[in-house]
Write a structure and sequence with these properties.
Layout lengths: L1 E5 L6 H12 L3 E5 L20 E4 L4 H12 L4 E2 L2 H6 L3 H11 L6 E4 L18 E5 L8 E4 L2 H10 L5 E5 L6 E8 L2 E8 L20 H14 L3 E9 L2 E9 L9 H10 L12
Parallel strand pairs: 1-2, 1-3, 3-4
Antiparallel strand pairs: 5-8, 6-7, 6-8, 9-10, 9-11, 11-12
Amino acid sequence: MRVCLLTDKPAHPLLAAASCVLIEAEHQVTFLNPDTGTGSPSELVIPDDLADVYLLKAHTPRALELARFLEAHGARVVNSAAATELCQDRSRIATVADGAGLPMPRTRTLDTLSESLHGAERPESRYPLMVKSRHNRRADLVARVDGPAELRDLAAKWPDEPVVLQEFVVNSGWDHKLWVIAGEVFTGIRPAPLGSRSDGAQSAPLVRDLPRAWTETALHTGEVFGLDVYGVDLLDREGAPVVVDINAFPGIRGPKGAPAALAALALRRPRPSPPAYEA
């Protein structure tokens, strides 16, 4: 089979290791940087000479344009352009998650962060709260705000930034990362950088040691958002999982078996189209 990586970082550990698995099995692996050039996607690919599958580990507008072009010409793209684009918009994520009954913090969307100042002093304003860029990208805004003064300072630095304001989730202080590749769950755990304080070291839990509700939440997230390769960040709120972030095709550094699972997904026959979502 011919597998093409759509990325500007083909040497990423996950992609490099999965490529080795595929090449050892005598499959052809190439890569294409979607942000090369300035013309249309047709300048990058020839519709009559498509790869069998494209792994989309890029989220830029040109990457999404290329993915849609490939899909329109019958190519299999993992994850789909629509699912990848959805996961770049935290406002749409919250709307879709709420409609599907996924446990997420209450979320309010603002066209600009400066709009938040109009309600910063009102008694009903609840602190702490999380302020995040609406559009998920590198070096975006993610900050905890503990009061009106902090909110004013943040708005002075990011006045025109489209944002979402989210309820702060009191948690154990650990950010539980569940990565999923074609239904196989991998786990990691990190100190929550903006959460409750936690001391000491903690290793990643085994999947079999996680409460069933946690793995079920991660798997249901993929079904709702039409994702094959994705990450779900969960916080522990009194034993119950709360989804605080969803990423299409994350790095997945560390877990054993992830490269082999990705290689197997690339070789898998296309699954039926996921259910349509609205946002």
